[in-house]
Amino acid sequence: MKLSSFSPVVRRRVVVTGIGIVSPIGIGREKTWEALCQSQTGTTDIQHADYLLPPSLWNDKKISQEEKQKMKQSLIEAMPCKVAALVRSQTTAGEPSFAPTAHAPRSFAFSEYCVAEALRDAGLLSPGAKPSLVVEDLNRVGVNMGMGIVSLDDVADVALALHTDPLHPHYSKIHPMFVPKILGNMLAGVTAIQYGATGPIGSGVAACATGAYCIGEAAVWVQRGKADIAICGAAESCVSGIAVGGFSRMRALCTKYNSTPETASRPFDKQSGGFVMGEGAGVLVLEEYERAVRRGAPIYAELRGFGQSSDAHHVAAPHPEGLGARHCIERALEDSEGVGAADVGYVNAHATGTIGDRIELKAMEESLGVDRSAPLYISSSKGALGHLLGAAGSVEAALTALALRRQLAPPTANLHDPCLSLEEQQQKKMCLIPHGTAQPLSTPAALSTSFGFGGINTALLFTQVN
């Protein structure tokens, strides 16, 4: 039997042409970047969290404001962790409030802002009060947006309605949009609906690696010709009593610095005491390289490699030897088809201020520390941002692309006593960038790592574009 002859599959180049960020240290890409480079922190007393109580309690007009405050205070007093990194409510006219509504949780509002900022940055939005996508074919626009945890507050509201008095369940209090509000793919759905994007759609769920996973998957679409443009990233908002209580019971959250919240998130620091829960969103616009060049789009970086691995070890703890972390970094290099370990001059690390920090450094040493002539600069954005959970990977990928484009590595806020001494750093050819000012770079490649519960590991490799 004669076999048919097919042309080989050609892998297309993928570049970042737009970035949108909402974070605890700034609304928008530039405000976040500026604050990050100045070691500002977004962690504050959890008293400032507006949505600790479920909406059905906070919005109940039969409950006085005084009683609501007592409920909130009782909840806070019950929690061992009393800090969080919050996107603060905006008070200036014209600025977004990011308040949850009956039809959409707070994370949807974060995402909507970021998508618009990223598309506008990429030059793909028309002007006017109701901007639309300026593209030739909406069938060539894909959307891959996710979240690590669905709206727990909406689940709590339904539970209260049905089970507060089991003999008299209040079925009618369930909002008709309850189910769409808690579906993990709905960020992608509402984004595609808003902009009429009818290309491929997806919504990866990978715990704290969700944002990075969505970006990596979207990049494959563009590489394989399934889409020419991809809107991708993640959003998260679960600074609520349920989430804080759940993570506190795991002893994952920092309780050591309740009296000095701004110092609580301490990646790579000997005095770290757990992670600080944060909220926000990060969105990238990925585009096929030739198309971006033809239209004169701004290009931040090329997304050259996407690495994935599984620890296959534990539901919450990283592999003690960092095998999964090392493997995903090595696979990102392999996927790049040409970028070597020594070419990577900066890593925006997943580091959360937990036992995983040292393990991640071991993985970097084994995967990136071979035959280096220049030090590998390393920092973690979580010192400033807190841990944005599902959105962490996309926000940090965006910051990595900015660092590469601007050849400037942001510092690690609150890193004063590194877990590696200066002598150890020199020996391993690593440089942990401490609290203070940003570090000038001279590197053609940078890496962003993201790891999640369940042993999910991802690495995104970016390179400069000539």
TrEMBL record:
Q: Which PROSITE patterns match?
A: KS3_2 (PS52004)
Cite the PANTHER family for this sequence: 3-OXOACYL-[ACYL-CARRIER-PROTEIN] SYNTHASE, MITOCHONDRIAL, POLYKETIDE SYNTHASE-RELATED
A Gene Ontology biological process term: fatty acid biosynthetic process
Q: What is this protein called?
A: beta-ketoacyl-[acyl-carrier-protein] synthase I
Q: Name one GO molecular function term.
A: 3-oxoacyl-[acyl-carrier-protein] synthase activity
Q: Which domain of life does the protein's organism represent? A: Eukaryota
Q: Which family does it belong to?
A: Belongs to the thiolase-like superfamily. Beta-ketoacyl-ACP synthases family.
**Ranges of residues in domain Ketosynthase family 3 (KS3):** 11-464
